[in-house]
Amino acid sequence: MSDTLALVTDMNEATYHARPELSSTQARQILDSPARFEYARTHPQAPKKAFDLGSAVHSKVLGVGYGIEVLNFESWRSKDAQIARDETYAAGLIPMLPHELGPVDEMSEAILSHKTARQIFEQDGIAEASVFATDPTTGVPLRARFDWFAPVCADLKTTAKDASKDTFAKTVASFGYDTQRGHYLDTLRFATGETRELVFVVVETNPPHLVAVHQLDRIFADMGHLKARRAREIYAECTESGVWPGYPDEVQLVIPPTWLVYQDAEKYE
C-alpha cells in the first residue's frame, strides 16, 4: 500500500489500527483530555472481551474484518480457556465460545432483515474502506475506516440500550458519534474532494435485536464537524509544544448543578 493513496480497500484491521495518523477514536480522546489521549497512545491496551460481540457482528454482516475463532470451552474461567483466548487475540482473530455464536447470527440476521439497513448494505460499495488525508489547515495527518463505503456510507453500531432515535441521540452525545461522523467525512473530503452522507445502522444486543437506521440532523452534523476540527487543532498545538495537558493547574471553583440547587431548596428551605 502506498502512503500516497487516499482510499485503500484491502488493508487489514491490524495494519490500519497500527498506523500513526489521527483516528476518529483518538480525536474524541483528545477532546476529552489530551493527557489521556497521549497515555492511551503510548500504553496500548490489550483486546477487551466487551468489544468482541460488536466486532463479530461486523464480520458477519460485512464479510470482512477480524475473523471468528470458535473455542470449545464452556466458559473463560479455566486457565486453558484463557490461554487459548489470548493466543486467538494474538493471531488477529475474535475468540468466541460456541454458545456466543447464537446472538451474533441473530443480530446479523436482524440487520439484513431490516428493509432500510438491507438496502444500504446492498448498495454498490466497499466494506472496511480506509481513507487517509492531511488537514490542509493544521497539517495533521488523518485516517478513517468506513464500515460501508458507498453513495450513502454506513457505520454499524451495536447497543445494549434501545435503538430508538431519542435514546440514540443521548448515545451520540455520550460517545461522540457526531465527532466520529465529522472526522470521517472531513477526512474523505480532504482526501478526495467528495462529500457523502454517513448513517448509523444500530442493532440492539438484547432480543429481539431491534434495528434502526439513524441520520444526524444538520445541527448535530455541524456540531460534529466543529468538534472534529477542534480536535485537530488541539493535536497540532500539543504536537508542536510537546505538552499534553490534563486538568488545569489552578484551583477550580466547583458550582452545584442546577438540579441539585432546586432539590436542596425543596428539601431544606
Give the uncertain stretches in residue-range form.
Answer: none
Q: What structural class do helix, strand and pairing data support?
A: alpha/beta
* Outline type: globular
Instruction: Calculate Rg over CA atoms.
Output: 21 Å
Distance from first to last alpha carbon = 69 Å
Question: How many individual β-strands?
Answer: 8
| Biggest sheet: strand arrangement | 1-4-5
Order of helices and strands: EHHHHEHEHHEEEHHEEHH
Total helices: the number is: 11
Please outline the major beta sheet.
3 strands, antiparallel
Tell me roughly what share of residues is in helical segments: 40-55%
Task: Report strand %.
Answer: 15-25%
The averaged pLDDT comes out at 93
Explain this structure.
Strand 4 (126-134) and strand 5 form a beta hairpin. This protein has helices spanning 13-18, 24-32, 34-42, 52-62, 79-90, 101-113, 115-121, 165-175, 177-192, 218-241, 258-268; strands spanning 7-8, 67-70, 93-96, 126-134, 141-149, 152-159, 197-204, 211-214. It is globular, with a radius of gyration of 21 Å. With 269 residues, the protein is α/β, with parallel strands linked by helices. The protein is 48% helix and 18% strand. Strands 1-4-5 form a three-stranded antiparallel beta sheet. It has a three-stranded mixed beta sheet with strand order 6-7-8. The model has no long low-confidence stretch (mean pLDDT 93). It is built from eleven helices and eight strands.
